[in-house]
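FW: tagging you since you asked about this chain on Friday. Here's the raw sequence from the shared folder, copied in full. Didn't touch anything.
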Amino acid sequence: MSNIFLSIIYATSIFSPFLPEKSQDFYKSSPNKSLKYEKLSHLHFYFHNIVTGPNPTATRVAFSAITNTSSSLFGLVVVIDDPLTVGPEQSSKQVGRAQGMFAAASLTELSFSMVLNYVFTEGKFNGSSLSILGQNPLHSDVREMPVVGGSGCFRFARGYAEGRTHVIDWETGDAVVEYNVYVYHY
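HL: got it, structure written out here
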């Protein structure tokens, strides 16, 4: 009997390196030297929300009966792929796109819940993006929305975006918004 027991122990010790490891942990921590130095970047650009004309960059995808009678446009959902430019003119150099959606989510004021990415196509941040998720009350002079993440150069990003209306056509919805974005990243 003891020979069988010793044979089992011997076989287990020989083959154990080839058996898959069964870890009880669901994570693994590892030092990352590339995350050693955090930077603060300030980005400044203009967001062009174009609803009218031959090439709109924003389109209404949902609305309800209450949207048409509500002063806050409650229930309106708009999908966007808006240009981001260096200056307020639409002909200014484009540095990226604001892609995502916003929804009128207040019964009492014109305020949008923004879910979008600033996707950069120029300069040192080309190919990187910042993710924005927050409330945008349009009648406030300055609106602040959180940066909740990013990709590329902006991995692990956090910060905030300040929006100021540069010009808006209340009849059409066309608007230019100036953004100052302050973001910590590695």
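FW: The two ends are 62 Å apart (CA to CA).
HL: agreed, and Helices lie at 2-15, 65-69.
FW: great, closing this out.
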